[in-house]
Protein 1
Amino acid sequence: MKKGIYLLLLSISIQFLANAQDNAGLTLPTGFKANLFAENIGSARHIAISKNGVVFAKLNRADKQGRTIIRLADENKDGVSDNITGWANYGGTGIYLTGNALYASSNEAVFKYELDSKDEVVNPLSPITVVSGLISRRQHESKSITFDKANNIYVNIGAYSNACQEKDRTPGGKGMMPCPILDSAGGIWKFDANKENQTYGDGKRYATGLRNVIGLDWNPQANKLYVAQHGRDQLNTFFPSLYTDAQNAELPAETFYEINEGDNAGWPYVYYDNFQHKKIVSPEYGGDGKKEGASDIKNPAVAFPAHMAPMGVLFYTGNQFPAKYKNGAFITFHGSWNRAPLPQEGFFVAFVPFKNGKATGEWEIFANGFAGTIDGAKITSTRSAKARPCGLAQGPDGSIYVSDDTKGSIFKISYQK
Amino acid sequence: MCNSKIRCFLFGAIIMLLFVSIKTQAQNLENGKKIYQTKCLVCHQSDGGGVPNMNAPLDGASNVVGNDIARLVKIIKNGFNERVELDGIYYSNSMTANPDLTPAQISDVLSYIRTSWSNKATKVTTVQVQQAIKGNQKTSAK
């Protein structure tokens, strides 16, 4: 019995040491370290960090105490949060901090809170409603937000559809022409963050033809919006005579765009094929896997493998990481489901190098191992991934933080020379 | 063992029937699995686990192993796209309708999902599915 307890203690301490040493299970480039800043905080979607290093996480669902915005402070400065509080009762994804104004989104609206000099929320029960009445019809309902330098807020309004078929997700079903969803969703809307109680009429459709964007950020060097789109699903199950299971697993690309006002990324009429390097007409609109779409549709700055689900974008402006990371973009990938019956991919953080404000077109895996599989085994069913990377933010010391919305871990990644 | 012709015949017939029914039951499940793989697996995944917050799990789902067969038949025939909690969680995707599946095919796929993974519920017969379709038509006509 005693022996058993010793063995248990021994194995727990080995486990503990292993955890502390092995970068919270993550694989990182040389010189980088990771630790768990927080664990089990709930469905942590996007995160924002104050200049004092306080982390705010937006939960998709209320935690056991009924809270949906979680404030995590690391008061003893050991890299692990030790004072966790929270407020608000609406699920959602978006959170953004500018000065002492904290913005958070539900699936229909954007609210503004004020923080005091200690980063405590001043008006937890009476936020200002900045925008409301945004379309939320279950599919692609997250309203992610980011800001430019002129206090304008950019809100993603995802399309409540896969490919704008007359009846959504129907084998062989035709696409609606024109797609009526694009009037009020399937794009990025711009609002003035100084105004209250705005809705569609007060904002502007800044970009269209974007099926669903969860990760978006302002590129400060280029002074432009960048967005990562979730490409359409199920080419093989709806059009089996045109696409095999193996083709569907690799098509279409997940795409990362530099956005200028008025841009059109082409959803639902086209998708981006990363093998032909072309915008291909969707089968719902008469495509055959080869026919090219209209030429005025935006090309991606970078294309990634299909279905990996980009969730967060962060332009790195810190000085802690090696020079190559400065002004480049990190992107979290949630991990796929729609590659089935082939194994799933994603569950990592990618780095996209930039030169003079432009993406080089290359990308690499920066942090991997979130899924927690052993010896590089593949995930076959999405639910078996231990963690799925979602939110991304940069701390005041130049470390980056990655949230996971399955169990609610927050990973802190730093570089030590 | 069989001391009269009739007895012998009956004994043989029972054994035969048993074999046939075991075999058709296995065929039904095999057929249900095939339907699952072509029409359901992409969303509900190979282990019935679904996709967190998006596609409901079938493995361990109280409705899937429950007694409301009519509801399950309706979901498979008409698809499912409602803001409802399933075992305490909302799912955001919309499920494809399957208007072309016959009652026999629906009973096969239902039997498969009710007896696979950790699920250990009863199988569903074609007659149960036919009755459910009739019942569903009546309630939707009201």
Protein 2
Amino acid sequence: MSAPLDVSGEEMRAEPEAVAKAGGAPIQGRSLGQIAWMRLKRDKVAITGGLVVVLLILVAIFAPLLVGWFGHPPNEFHQEMIDTLTMQPKGGSGIGKDFLFGVEPVNGRDLFSRVVYGARISLLVAFFATLLSVVIGTVMGIVAGYFGGWVDTLISRAMDIFLAFPLLVFALSLVGVLGQFETQLAVKGDTLRILLLIFVIGFFNWPYIGRIIRGQTLSLREREFVDAARSLGARGPYILFREVLPNLIAPILIYATLLIPTNVLFEAALSFLGVGIQPPTATWGGMLSAAVKYYTVPHFMFFPGMAIFITVLAFNLFGDGLRDALDPKSSR
Amino acid sequence: MNEEPLLSVQGLEKHFPVTKGLLQRQVGAVRAVDGISFDVRKGETLGLVGESGCGKTTTGRLITRLIEPTGGKIVFAGHDVTHMSQGRLRPLRRDVQMIFQDPYSSLNPRHTVGAIVGAPFRIQGIKTEQGTKKAVQEILELVGLNPEHYNRYPHEFSGGQRQRIGIARTLALKPKLIIADEPVSALDVSIQAQVVNLLEDLQGELDLTYVVIAHDLSVVRHISDRVAVMYLGKIVEIADRKGLYESPMHPYTNALLSAVPIPDPKRRAGRERIRLQGDVPSPLNPPPACRFHTRCWKAQEVCRTVEPPLETLAPGHQVACHFPENVAGSLEGVLGGTASTGAVPAEAAPAPEGGALA
Ligand SMILES: Nc1ncnc2c1ncn2[C@@H]1O[C@H](COP(=O)(O)OP(=O)(O)OP(=O)(O)O)[C@@H](O)[C@H]1O
Ligand code: SF4
Ligand SMILES: [Mg+2]
């Protein structure tokens, strides 16, 4: 936990009176969001993390273009790069200007393009799983916190149950079962597995954000500005959407940003275990899993490993910076 | 006195249930407000004073019907609002507003000053001739804020300015009654007087009636016409200002008064300072009979067994105590110059009557 910043930083203590007298310019207040943005801009580490995140997203979106320029189709075999005796890449890794990250052993597929395509699956699954968790968690958290009583008890128990759920076992068996019926389902292959991953990862992780939002709602509900609105005759929806929700945007943003890297790791782990996307589609976890057998060619493990590492680190650094900037702890 | 009071509170009670376990079984109740009665006449200011936790805020929240009373009756401007539905209360809410205790918690940090002070118009669906913005700016000016700060956010203001924003919000709909819950206790001493003066000026200008809550008697001294003293959910003494400050009858009022600094050294000399022993007992389990007996230096056996009723002992002066002081009251105060706060519960006349009522 980084030390919470006090909202009464200098830039905010600018006395309105003083400003009014000195400048005479039209007075425009700075919202907490604008102040957070100013703080974030000064946080070099967070901004670097943010830029890397943007870069990764661009890579994922423009993967076909990148591969077209700098590589070879991800599932194209390049036997000419393989030493037929050892089945290892010629020259150890095959890294060169043709194959930026070298080639896989045995079949000689282009590692660069496989890592680039792997970003698509990783980010896609992580984003949508996070979205699913955040939507369910926020709704459940607000409902539990705002209405309290037996509704709260019910939802809180549900959260406990979800958190105690043996997720990995469930994921393994779900994939096994669905695999049997695959021919009868409307969606098949990669699409089916991507949806499955999003569901498994997203649906079981909502209690984390749910608890945070519940706690925040609980404390917001007790704030006197809610009483003030009620004493003016405001009804439930007004209080929920106009008074409470604007104060929840910061925590939602922060925890969403911090949940994404967790989900990237989770997806990689599932793919590593063979539960995720199936070969030959390129995923980082799947590549790592394959690379384990070829410890003599370390570059095979290095590039997908680095991709996961950089992605997780960038999101975490950005998320931490965002938290410091928005600082929900001391925003009164 | 012949006029009907603007607000009448009769035997008002609020018991917060204390629940336990998964099934929310009730195991007790916090008797935050336990049968209080008072009237507030149009145009007057009633001070409501008591230590922390004695139920002052709860009383305010009951009157504004933020919470539902467990017993008693609240009549505002002839309407019985005790259990009125929120829907039917809505139009009446324009007339009763509350200033909150904590100026940091009472303003939504995500809303601009304009949105906060304009909220009453929006919530009540009121259109003003010149538009909400103009109306809001006029109110800001009225409470001594720069109307150009319309687009600023609460965190850009000091505590005193924030409390002015809170006051502006209560004024938006031109209410008849304002409950001010410790309007200055969160503020610097140096600006407390400014805010109290503002409240006083506004009262004259806008024809307001106030219930001003405070935890010590000094804050409400010059703003109140009458003062009610609360202890553990009960009113122990209620009188007009002169009667209460010059000849307090309840030992608790005396104790509170002795904590108030007196500017006049002559009077200060003749007064001994009473230090209250111990903490306020929990309202979860209040002492029987007279609730003050655990801390009262005049307590007798009867105080532990018979609850003293709130009785009128002088015109407009009600006290709940078996052994009140200053009963021949104002005379002694004027002649002797000093209040007899002797620890001897000697000439305590009305004790037998109190006993008879049990
Ligand atoms: N919602 C609630 N649920 C349970 N108990 C409550 C609730 N609100 C208040 N209480 C209890 O009721 C008692 C009176 O509280 P109240 O806030 O009215 O006191 P107060 O006189 O305003 O004190 P302060 O000077 O600290 O503001 C306290 O013991 C408090 O703990
Ligand atoms: S009734 Fe007894 S205990 Fe209570 S205040 Fe009076 S003298 Fe003290
Ligand atoms: Mg209070």
